[in-house]
């Protein structure tokens, strides 16, 4: 990221750090292991009906660690903002249901189910990302379903971006990350919002503490108390 050569090298590393949902965790990645196989899934089991705008979301059941959640409705639930309350401070976010309706709907559904309550943010790469949303805190957990990416191909990831972690194309679940500083990640991660300046400051303050002895988790526990 500092020079052409370093940027290329860093990009490979950072992509490997942002896999999510399925596979074993080797402790070197910032979410689920991208080198592992994608999570298994069954026949899509959507609920609800198409929205007036025509958007219909499909969520596929998956066998994975974590805790199972109810499938979100096929008709997207829209929300413009939310607050992630943590033991380190509140992180307020503006959501983008127009560009990522199914992602926002999934996140809202999980929040309404209390899915994130009491979970730890399991990955920290200082100067890059803080990653959360895995109830197992292993980097391999999820809600028991996956859903497709919502990408245009021109996504950028400036500081404050709120995006989904994945284990390859169309393997989104419950894991998400907050970008701590402008990043040159490839457009492979669905962006569904951004955090405000105060929320970004909370995440950056967490990063200042560095990593725990395992070199992966934050040095001090970061616990999501609620998402509302």
UniProtKB/TrEMBL annotation:
Biased composition (Low complexity): 33-56
Region listing for Disordered, in residue ranges: 23-57
Assigned EC number: 5.2.1.8
TM region positions: none
InterPro entries: Cyclophilin-like_dom_sf (IPR029000), Cyclophilin-type_PPIase_dom (IPR002130), Cyclophilin_A-like (IPR044666)
Family: Belongs to the cyclophilin-type PPIase family.
The protein, known as: Peptidyl-prolyl cis-trans isomerase
Originating organism: Aeromicrobium chenweiae
Organism taxonomic ancestry: Bacteria, Bacillati, Actinomycetota, Actinomycetes, Propionibacteriales
